[in-house]
Specification:
With 104 residues, the protein is an alpha+beta fold. It contains 2 helices and 4 strands. Helices cover 23% and strands 26% of the residues. Strands 1-2-3-4 form a 4-stranded antiparallel sheet.
Length: 104
């Protein structure tokens, strides 16, 4: 379990849940939820681990940037946050704004 904050300062928790399946490999998967409670529960089943121990070790080493990036993907997937769209997005080739793209 790893607490972090999104870009607005809201507290979240990244954790791993175990899928109930007879399959042995990749039973643990990434889940995020607000720190204040378990709703909304945002699963990311494409991020998997072999064991709870490996999930905990990986989450402990993940940066807040990486957690925020994955959270944004989950929020966008659930329709909670709108991402770029053909109607409202920037033109192709336009640099993204943010800490990584500072003006010279």
């Amino acid at each position: 379990m790893k607490p972090f904050q999104d870009e607005t300062g809201r507290s979240w928790v990244a954790t791993a849940y175990e899928e109930q399946t007879p399959r042995h490999h990749g039973r643990w998967y990434l889940v995020m939820h607000p720190a204040a409670g378990p709703e909304p529960l945002l699963p990311m089943p494409e991020v998997r681990w072999q064991s709870r121990r490996s999930a905990e070790r990986t989450l402990a080493t993940m940066s807040e940037f990486e957690l925020r990036r994955r959270l944004f993907t989950l929020l966008e997937r659930e329709g909670i946050t709108a991402g770029a769209t053909p109607e409202g997005g920037a033109a192709p080739g336009t640099p993204r704004s943010g800490a990584g793209n500072r003006a010279p």
